[in-house]
Amino acid sequence: MLPCNGAAHQSLLRTTTPATVVPLPRYVEIETSRKCNRTCSWCPNGEHTARRTQQLMKWELYKSIITELGELGFDGWLAFHNYNEPLLNPRLIEEIALAVSSAPQAHPAIYSNGDALNRDLFERLVVAGVEYIRITRYPHQADTPATFEAIQKWLRQAGLADQFPWEFRTVRQGFAATTESGTVRVEVISPDIVGTYNTRGGSVTLLPLHVAQRTTPCLMTSTSAVVDYLGRMKMCCCVYPDIPDHRGYVVGDLNDATFMQLWESDQMNAYRTAHQAADWSLSPACRSCTQPLPETRL
Question: What is residue 191's three-state secondary structure?
């Protein structure tokens, strides 16, 4: 399954159009490390071995991306994850520090499963300049119901239960505990996997989910940019290039191009135009994606 048919058409989509003025994304994921410590059935990492060893993004590549984002005045969210677990990255604090100094208008964010987080690391992240921390406490089995008890147990284990006044509430993914301290917002989620997760464009096959045809537009390609640990910019966060059906959704390589050259490329612009009209002809994987994230809509 490829995003477009025919070598000539594929070549056309991969050229750039400097005259096109595309607004900057409001959310950028830079997967600065490779490894994830989990193999969940609702994630392609549960079916493939690519993320079981560590590899860090080349420092000069990371530095060039962050420097360009800073020069562009990027003022959206900047996260250090995609299919990895960012807290396993031994260089993470240094990466955050560079982002704060070189792209000062950006808002650093951490999305984690929380397995490696403790109070000391939490405080180091806050001091480094992180403004949002989301911990998703994944269960061992997909059909495990979301509970507030699971959140409370993790807060005690991490040494954060008495650190802040937590507000417990229902959220889109299940249940959550949230708090704010200074400039940092923290959210700890117990997710309803079967009820809210999707197959990530068909890359997840182990989880028995009801797959509905998407009929509403998706603005993910207009509002968010995703770069993996090798420097590849992808169509969106659901793309998993380690499987053949998703390799065509890689837009380009930031080792050979600038961020804006790929963000404004004909391929990304073609995706944007099609997705805004709920047209999945260029990206068949999108037909089964029911992702409701804010980045998918205006």
Answer: strand
